[in-house]
Amino acid sequence: MKIVVDAMGGDYAPQNVIAGVVDAVKEYGVSVTLVGISDTIKAELKKFQYPQSLIEIVHAPEVVAMDDPATVVIRQKRNSSISVGMGLLKKEGYGAFVSAGNTGACVAASTFILGMIPQVDRPGIGCIFPSLKNFTLMIDVGANTAAKPEHLLQYAKMAKVYAQTVLGRTTPTIGLLNIGEEECKGTDFEKEAHKLLEEKEPSFIGNVEANEVFTGKTDCIVCDGYVGNITLKVAEGMMESAGKLLKREIKKNPISILGALLLKSSLSAAKKSVDYSEYGGAPLLGVDGLVLISHGRSSPKAIKNAVRCAKEEIEHNVLKKIKEEMAK
Amino acid sequence: MKIVVDAMGGDYAPQNVIAGVVDAVKEYGVSVTLVGISDTIKAELKKFQYPQSLIEIVHAPEVVAMDDPATVVIRQKRNSSISVGMGLLKKEGYGAFVSAGNTGACVAASTFILGMIPQVDRPGIGCIFPSLKNFTLMIDVGANTAAKPEHLLQYAKMAKVYAQTVLGRTTPTIGLLNIGEEECKGTDFEKEAHKLLEEKEPSFIGNVEANEVFTGKTDCIVCDGYVGNITLKVAEGMMESAGKLLKREIKKNPISILGALLLKSSLSAAKKSVDYSEYGGAPLLGVDGLVLISHGRSSPKAIKNAVRCAKEEIEHNVLKKIKEEMAK
Q1: Of B20, B97, B113, whose CA–CA distance to B313 is shortest?
Q2: Is B189 on the interface with A (CB under 8 A)?
Q3: Which of A214, A318, A319, B95 is the most buried (most CB within 10 A)?
Q4: CATH superfamily of this structure's domain A127-276
Q5: What CATH number does the domain located at B128-276 have?
Q6: CB-CB: which of A142, A210, A270 is closest to B230?
Q7: Each residue's pLDDT tens digit in chain A (328 positions)?
Q8: Which of A184, A215, A238 comes nearest B214 by C-beta?
């Protein structure tokens, strides 16, 4: 089963994408199909040594810019790497699609080209946050910014299956993101969603506050895409700024510089466990195909890990299992 | 001008509140009125040495619990420390009210007892986030979870005055929290708010993403109270969990323990600049009185700093200036 990778997607494409793909085929022995401007991909691939049989190229002449409107993949750029790559998933032998490109365009293309799973109305992006326990799978972090309560119930069911199959949790718990634990909290949207989840989803254990994302109180958290996206950006922004701030303080003091050197291995270990690039890709759940969206600023390591996630999703047959759950 | 402090508010009341107040009167020479169960306050005060003339006690027999519904201050517990304390602000000689108690109850009591400033429809809680530049004043972080675009315009005007007078920014800039910088981003609410802010508020410079809270791209950020509250909780939760994770890693390795010791002063300096207790209180803007809401888990230092903030707000005449701005 081949993994399709958007060679043109992301702030550092095609360089980081191709470097990551080369590492992935070497490390995991997977077959990858790179989609994008063929000559550009070939020129970049020449820099590396790798098992040639594991990487194929499919030409797509158009490139979706990071700031293009989402609908560009359906209207103007139907021959973009995103549209062409997504189309391959409908053919025999292609198992998953990975892109670090324009998130909105990936969501639009997958909805339009792959279609939705029966009983799912809207796709949701799942993000795997590191937590003190293990991880928290939050869905949605930005695909659907006008979610209805029933969408959150669908997200809950899909997240449960994903946590069981890919992330190895036998009996995952699900929480509803809210501004307080009591069921009377939040806007009408959260109150209705709480009621629906309580009625229909046995894994649901109630409201969770945003700080619980990092304590790992529940395995999965469902929320509207707008709030989920804010959560993701706050977490990223905070981590980055705190790191810069600490470096600034350390530089002021020679003893601290020595301390930082001695701390290096622990800092790296802690950083590794909170580093999004260790996870690599955020699964887009609800569409009829395996799609992973990587961060626009993905490093080669993040791309490599996204390919690993794609491989695991294929091996665990997660799409089939989500369909079975939704058909219940 | 006396500063009224809710002696019964917070997870560690009255101990932390009274310890913080004692430090504040000693350090800043301010006069404080402690409101709450008189005997409890007296017993606690006995533990300290302080200039007796600077602390007076006003008895309030009822206590609002942290999980009481907000309206309890208006309906059942009209003799609570929050209600009685807020009432004092209407008398001559009392300049500000500080509470680490039930946030919803403080918002309800201040709206009901103090009333709104003319031209302001809803109160908003301003939170001062540390950033790489200096600070970011975000409003609202939880008073009004169903904000309308015009409320955000009112928040923008009030935040501007607060940043100018209390925080010393001559020409503060204002951003609208959104999931993208382009003005087409967000839900209908953000699009309408963007249009209104652009038309009516010259300090408005456009949308900002949630990670910009910590880079300090704008001096002030306006948002709906629901999203603002999530932002605050994510930031708090992330900082706490990252700290725990780092400690866990450090303990595994003796060299790291030595490194951490050498790093101590820089870590404290960095921590100090991101520590909410250095700021102490979040101003509740829009009500006709100076109200500061402190974190439920406030340390004595956080309370001391909240009293300092109250003192500064009084000295800078911020209430009068906000009223003047709103009357323009």
Answers
A1: B97
A2: no
A3: A214
A4: Isopropylmalate Dehydrogenase (3.40.718.10)
A5: 3.40.718.10
A6: A210
A7: 999 999 999 999 999 999 999 999 999 999 999 999 999 999 999 999 999 999 999 999 999 998 888 888 888 899 999 999 999 999 999 999 999 999 999 999 999 999 999 999 999 999 998 888 888 999 999 999 999 999 999 999 999 999 999 989 999 999 999 998 888 788 899 999 999 999 999 999 999 999 899 899 999 999 999 999 999 999 888 888 877 877 777 788 777 777 777 777 777 776 666 665 667 789 999 999 999 999 888 899 999 999 999 999 999 999 999 999 999 9
A8: A238
Whether A211 and chain B come into contact, CB under 8 Å, resolves to: yes
With pLDDT > 70 as the criterion, what percentage of chain B qualifies?
Answer: 97
The residue whose two tokens read 């315009």 is: B153
Quick: pLDDT tens for B150-197. Answer: 999 999 999 999 999 998 999 999 999 999 888 878 889 999 999 999
CB atoms within 10 A of CB A126: 27
**For residue A131, which residues of chain B lie inside 8 Å, CB to CB?**
241
Q: How far is CA A55 from CA A2, A17, A21, A292, A310, in A?
A: 9, 13, 9, 19, 15
Asked, colleague to colleague, whether B1-120+286-328 and B128-276 share their fold, the answer is yes
Beta strands across the sheet bearing B31-36: B55-59, B31-36, B2-6, B94-99, B290-293, B282-285, B124-130, B135-139, B220-222, B174-177, B204-208
ipTM: 0.84
- How far does B290 lie from chain A, in Å, by closest CA? 25
Which chain A residues contact residue B148 at CB under 8 A? Answer: none
Q: Does A252 touch chain B (CB under 8 A)?
A: yes
Distance CA A231, CA B234 (A): 6
CB pairs under 8 A between A and B: 187
Can you give the residue ranges of every domain in chain A?
Answer: 1-120+286-318, 127-276
The answer for residues whose C-beta is within 8 angstroms of residue A199's C-beta and 6 or more apart is: none
Length in residues, chain B: 328
Radius of gyration of chain A (CA): 20
Residues pairing with A13 in the sheet: none
B274 touching chain A per CB within 8 A: yes
Q: A153: which residues sit within 8 A by CB, 6+ positions away? A: A193, A196, A197, A200, A201
- Answer yes or no: do B214 and A273 touch at CB < 8 A: no
B77-96 residues touching A, CB cutoff 8 A = none
Q: Residue A106 in 3-state DSSP?
A: helix
The distance in angstroms from the start CA to the end CA of chain A is 28
Nearest CA in chain B to A269: B249
Q: Is the pTM of this model over 0.80?
A: yes
A142 in contact with chain B, both atoms CB, cutoff 8 A: yes
Q: Is A134 on the interface with B (CB under 8 A)?
A: no
* DSSP secondary structure letter of residue B110: I
CB contact under 8 A, B270 and A252: no
Whether A177 contacts B230, CB under 8 Å:
yes
Question: Encoding tokens for residue A147?
Answer: 């979610």
Give the three-class secondary structure for B166. coil
Q: Which amino acid is at A328?
A: K
Task: Enter the CATH code of domain B1-120+286-328.
Answer: 3.40.718.10
At the topology level, CATH places domain A1-120+286-318 in Isopropylmalate Dehydrogenase (3.40.718)
Which helix (H) or strand (E) segment holds residue B138: the answer is strand B135-139
Structure tokens belonging to residue A74 = 């359906």
Cβ of residue B240 closer than 8 Å to a chain A Cβ:
yes
Distance CA B56, CA B21 (A): 11
